[in-house]
């Protein structure tokens, strides 16, 4: 149905040029410091995504403390998860201007501040601002760079690298659930959030490990040698990627002119500074400030130009129909995974299974199997004879089936089996950056993946409150799972339809030319 990820258009260039230029590979690509990047991303997933998956513990504490409805209280967790992902396109702007390292360090400070301020919450609405918005934005500023850096450092083993780094979500959900439960019992939920804020400062260390590659190393990725035995089933997607590439070339000339103008401005400032050595110290200090401001202006302007062209310019990502279908899928998919994590503790309590769940929580089962799912799916997807896209679709079908059948299970064993399947099939999250990169290329990965996680954020933002609202009306969570599962299925249908449409277009072209 779909070709391997190498066929999807990994490099936007001409296939005839591939392998024609021998370039000395950087030892840090697929090795060396690349594994430190994986470690950094792994820790980021533990501290951010793992903590968010453990918010069911704090959600129960907030229900008892503030005595608000389940729907309103669920908005705190949803805002944190949703905003972490929704700010993706805007974090892409920060990355274009400041780079991944600085963006992640600033985000780590902001995330820790959100946790600490939330310890002093007087009501749920206070948590909306401190935990939902402040900690959410900080999380987004660390999460996107962590994913993008892995994509930049790996070429041959991207799926495995992303799988290993994103297993931090599973480890984090397991560890943070136990940690938050212990801290809440021993110190209360307020002190637990304060301590978690201190722990979150380690995100700054993770950001410091994100050493940027030189532009030469990133550009050289397009000359990676590809096997001649690869099949060409996915020429449609290569065509979509090449459309973005060709359109992007239209704006290359004006950008070069802008850069030349900016360099002239800086040169003039430097010339003025060198000619003014005889002046007093105050004038020299003013010139240095002017030079710094000019450099900052150039950096901001160039970063904004790249960000703007990706979304609204001639090289807009939205010209790729398969990528647009991917966005529609993301709008419905993530809530189906988030809802069980937020509301499973309440479902277990409703079925009088708390004693069994306390021995081995269902959310921990999801988290542990989720780890193996990501690694296994990553290894399978990196096999030369296996299509990453097909693995991605099969995992989605399994997950939506589990979501639709979960309300039918009312014993601990049956719930544990379904939760294990949910954990394994949701391992496809490690393939999302790989599929995105295959569709748009490494150059556009930060902005493209920012759009995808933004769509996921919208899904996460409205999913849990919707489930809580349905429960307030029906006193059951069943309909929440049924509705979210059906919407999820709609998104999968979009993924199936668009590639079929795209495949037909290249076949029609030669026929028309032959007739002419």
Automatic annotation (TrEMBL):
GO terms for molecular function: monocarboxylic acid transmembrane transporter activity. Gene3D superfamilies: MFS general substrate transporter like domains. Signal peptide: none annotated. SUPFAM superfamilies: MFS general substrate transporter (SSF103473). It comes from the Eukaryota. The keyword Transcription does not apply. One of its GO terms (cellular component) is membrane. Residues 248-280 are annotated as: Disordered. It is found in: Membrane. Keywords: Membrane, Transmembrane, Transmembrane helix. The chain crosses the membrane at residues 33-55, 75-96, 103-121, 127-148, 160-180, 192-210, 322-344, 359-377, 389-409, 415-436, 448-467, 479-497. The keyword Cell membrane does not apply. Residues 37-503 form the Major facilitator superfamily (MFS) profile domain. InterPro entries: MFS, MFS_dom, MFS_trans_sf, Proton-linked_MCT. It is a multi-pass membrane protein. PANTHER family: MONOCARBOXYLATE TRANSPORTER, MONOCARBOXYLATE TRANSPORTER 14. This is MOT14 protein. The gene is Slc16a14.
């Amino acid at each position: 149905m779909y070709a391997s990820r190498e066929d999807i258009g990994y490099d936007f260039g001409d296939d005839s040029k591939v392998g024609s230029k021998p370039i000395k590979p950087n030892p840090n690509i697929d090795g060396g410091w690349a594994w430190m990047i994986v470690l950094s991303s792994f820790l980021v997933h533990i501290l951010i995504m793992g903590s968010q998956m453990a918010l069911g513990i704090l959600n129960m504490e907030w229900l008892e403390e503030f005595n608000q409805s389940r729907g309103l209280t669920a908005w705190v967790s949803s805002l944190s998860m949703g905003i972490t992902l929704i700010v993706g396109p805007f974090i892409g702007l920060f990355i274009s201007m400041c780079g991944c390292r600085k963006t992640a360090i600033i985000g780590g400070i902001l995330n820790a501040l959100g946790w600490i301020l939330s310890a002093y919450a007087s009501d749920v609405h206070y948590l909306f601002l401190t935990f939902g918005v402040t900690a959410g934005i900080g999380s987004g500023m660390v999460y996107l760079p962590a994913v993008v850096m892995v994509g930049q450092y790996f070429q041959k083993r991207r799926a495995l690298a992303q799988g290993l780094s994103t297993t931090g979500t599973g480890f984090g959900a397991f560890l943070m659930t136990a940690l938050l439960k212990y801290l809440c019992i021993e110190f209360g939920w307020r002190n637990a959030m304060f301590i978690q804020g201190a722990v979150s400062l380690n995100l700054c260390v993770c950001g410091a490990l994100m050493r940027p590659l030189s532009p030469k190393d990133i550009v050289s990725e397009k000359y990676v040698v590809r096997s001649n035995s690869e099949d060409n089933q996915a020429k449609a997607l290569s065509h979509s990627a090449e459309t973005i590439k060709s359109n992007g070339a239209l704006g290359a000339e004006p950008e070069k002119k802008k850069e030349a103008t900016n360099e002239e401005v800086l040169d003039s400032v430097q010339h003025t500074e060198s000619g003014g050595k005889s002046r007093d110290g105050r004038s020299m200090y003013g010139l240095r400030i002017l030079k710094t401001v000019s450099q900052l202006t150039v950096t901001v302007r160039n970063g904004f130009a790249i960000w703007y062209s990706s979304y609204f310019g001639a090289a807009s990502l939205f010209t790729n129909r398969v990528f647009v279908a991917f966005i529609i899928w993301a709008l419905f998919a993530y809530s189906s995974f988030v809802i069980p994590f937020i509301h499973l503790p309440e479902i277990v309590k409703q079925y009088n299974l708390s004693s069994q769940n306390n021995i081995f929580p269902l959310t921990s089962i999801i988290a542990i199997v989720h780890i193996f799912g990501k690694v296994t799916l990553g290894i399978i997807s990196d096999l030369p004879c296996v299509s990453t896209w097909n693995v991605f679709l099969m995992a989605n079908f399994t997950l939506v089936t589990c979501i639709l059948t979960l309300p039918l299970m009312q014993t601990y064993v049956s719930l544990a089996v379904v939760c294990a399947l949910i954990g394994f099939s949701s391992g496809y999250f490690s393939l999302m950056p790989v599929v995105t990169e295959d569709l748009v290329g490494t150059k556009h990965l930060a902005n493209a993946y920012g759009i995808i996680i933004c769509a996921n954020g919208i899904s996460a933002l409205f999913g849990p409150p919707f489930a809580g609202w349905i429960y307030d009306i029906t006193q059951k969570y069943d309909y929440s799972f049924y509705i979210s599962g059906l919407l999820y299925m709609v998104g999968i249908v979009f993924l199936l339809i668009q590639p079929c449409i795209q495949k037909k277009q290249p076949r029609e072209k030669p026929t028309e030319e032959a007739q002419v």
